[in-house]
Amino acid sequence: MMRSNRTWSGHTLRAALLGGALAALSATGAWADQPFILEVGGPLSDPFFSTFKRGGDDAAAAEGVRFEFTAPNGFDNLSQDLAKLIEVGITRKPDAMVIGDFIPDAEDPGIKAAVAAGIVVVIVNTGADSWEDDGAIAFVGQDEALAGREAARAFLAAGVKNAVCVNHVPGNPGTQARCDGMVAAMTEAGAKGTAFNLPYSDSGNPQQVKQAIMGTLTADSTIDGVFTLGSGIAEQAMQAVASAGLGGNVQVGTTDISTNTLNAVKSGDLLFDIDQQPYLQGYYGVLIAAQRLKYGLQPIGMIKTGPMVIDKTNVDAVLEAQKLGVRGAG
């Protein structure tokens, strides 16, 4: 029987809503009476996922559920690590799993196995094309192709003629869709757009990322736009442009925000920052799972959290909200 049919006593539900209830439950060992939600997310070495995890933590606290966030340590063996985490997660018999379907070929069999085992599954961040086939109850994430098109729009408005997209997670349909969207929109406008993949093993090494981008800029002197798909990669791209002596000649834009990238937008070092609101992805993923388990409630269809384009016209307001730690990485 699906665990979503489990009912919880009125006493338990009321306690979950009281301030300090979670600490009391933990101290007395009463977690055994609470729904258990396990998340398989992205490496916390990527600053994007620190805010993502915070959203999940906050939703779990608000809903009074037991929540654990698991993730690979890095990107080196991403496919194998994600598949293994899902496999191990199923053996722990959670009531629900919130899963980022970053590498569908590796993760989809495990997701389907979780559903077959009666575990409620919510897909977050990546998996817009596969969540229904996998048997998940909902998907929370951004329109990835549109994010790429918004990047192209910003580049074209700034006069960029030849933009390159740096994909630091090859094999992830979400990052691929961003690059494809940018390339398509640049091409349709009569400009040029290309993409290149960074190996997983290089993505967590700032110096290697910087060198790879510098090499691309050196190989094609007509490139005047660099589109990155993460705040950390954006910082390395800006350093690459500066080290190559191309400041003012090459515009850099990115997806996924951090305090550093927002300040770079404000100073003019970064043309734009496209936010998919990771806090909301983390929060809504756990919220949907918890409310399905507790009340049988769920949204119908996809919940889109982006893209939201941040530039000089609105960056000050986002920086103000960033002080609360809910907009992006610190």
Walk me through what this model shows.
The model is unreliable at 1-31 (pLDDT under 50). Helix 5 links the parallel strand 3 (96-99) and strand 4. By secondary structure, the chain is of the alpha/beta class. It is globular. The chain contains 14 helices and twelve strands. The chain starts with 9 loop residues before the first helix and ends in an 8-residue tail after the last helix.
Low-confidence stretches are 1-31
Number of helices: 14
User: What is the number of E strands?
Assistant: 12
Distance between the termini: 42 Å
How much helicity do the residues have? 40-55%
User: What fraction strand?
Assistant: 15-25%
Instruction: Name the shape in a single word.
Output: globular
Radius of gyration: 21 Å
H/E order of the elements?
Answer: HHEHEHEHEHEHEHEHHEHEHEHEEH
Structural class: alpha/beta
Q: What's the average pLDDT?
A: 90
Q: What strand line-up does the widest sheet have?
A: 2-1-3-4-5-11
Query: Biggest sheet, in brief?
Result: 6 strands, parallel
Question: What is shown here, in short?
Answer:
By secondary structure, the protein is α/β, with parallel strands linked by helices. Helix content is 48%, strand content 16%.
Task: Give descriptors for this structure.
alpha/beta, 330 residues, globular
List the helices and strands and how they pair.
Elements (H helix, E strand, L loop, with lengths): L9 H8 L3 H8 L7 E5 L7 H16 L2 E5 L7 H14 L4 E4 L4 H13 L3 E5 L6 H4 L3 E4 L2 H14 L4 E6 L5 H16 L3 E6 L2 H4 L2 H14 L5 E4 L2 H13 L7 E5 L3 H9 L4 E4 L2 H18 L6 E3 L3 E3 L4 H8 L8
Parallel strand pairs: 1-2, 1-3, 3-4, 4-5, 5-11, 6-7, 6-8, 8-9, 9-10
Antiparallel strand pairs: 10-12
Helix pairs in contact: 3-13, 4-5, 7-8, 10-11, 12-14
